[in-house]
């Protein structure tokens, strides 16, 4: 059994300005996506130039932040949003939904593809491998913030988080960092190293993330104000992730079917 180290969520204070670890994790994610994107854009099959990556990451950042914050309150805390609309501006408090961020990024990709006359699926294939490092960094931010804890467990690496009581719990944030961040990055970077059918990389991202997230949901505590939706184990995360798996598998099937036709 381990004890949570009680990490201060504030990384640095400069006078009245407090810089939170959670916010720094977003900077890490965007910086990694920008650097990898500039490198990846040098490939002959890239739909964008290295210079266009700058604008693409900017558009993506807007989509992630707005979509994730709005999505959290719509999916998980709608009543709280009605009582406190300014919660949308307090990014350092957490409360960011991946599924909302995905919707926000998708809308921005549609806008970017339309504005620059780029094939949307090719753009999505380009961007998918750039995302996991940011996802992993975000889950590390959740761990530092002491949020999204797992269910009670007696595994040797279970952690006691005092605000939740004496029971040791799965450090589910670290599970998600390992699967949604590290493992997903390795999988997508390997898969995208060679030319793939149009839409296959984006499809793999959706399917693999959905599988990884759905797996960890079995170890993660549901939101207190929502609880389990059914069967004593089905969570909102399961419900939101299932369409991703279905769409992702369908997109992979369609991509390879189109290649066979051609």
TrEMBL record:
GO MF: phosphatidylglycerol-prolipoprotein diacylglyceryl transferase activity
Short name of one Pfam family: LGT
Cleavable signal peptide: none
UniProt keyword annotations, A-Z: Cell membrane, Membrane, Transferase, Transmembrane, Transmembrane helix
Subcellular localization, as worded in the UniProt entry: Cell membrane
InterPro entries, per database record: Lgt
GO CC annotation terms, alphabetical: plasma membrane
EC number: 2.5.1.145
Pathway listed: Protein modification; lipoprotein biosynthesis (diacylglyceryl transfer)
Domain of life of the native organism: Bacteria
Biological process according to GO: lipoprotein biosynthetic process
Topology of this chain in the membrane: Multi-pass membrane protein
TM segment ranges: 19-36, 56-76, 96-114, 126-144, 174-192, 199-216, 228-256
Protein residues bound to a 1,2-diacyl-sn-glycero-3-phospho-(1'-sn-glycerol): 139
Stored HAMAP family: Lgt
Family designation: Belongs to the Lgt family.
Entry function: Catalyzes the transfer of the diacylglyceryl group from phosphatidylglycerol to the sulfhydryl group of the N-terminal cysteine of a prolipoprotein, the first step in the formation of mature lipoproteins.
Protein name: Phosphatidylglycerol--prolipoprotein diacylglyceryl transferase
Organism: Halorhodospira halochloris (Ectothiorhodospira halochloris)
Lineage of the organism: Bacteria, Pseudomonadati, Pseudomonadota, Gammaproteobacteria, Chromatiales
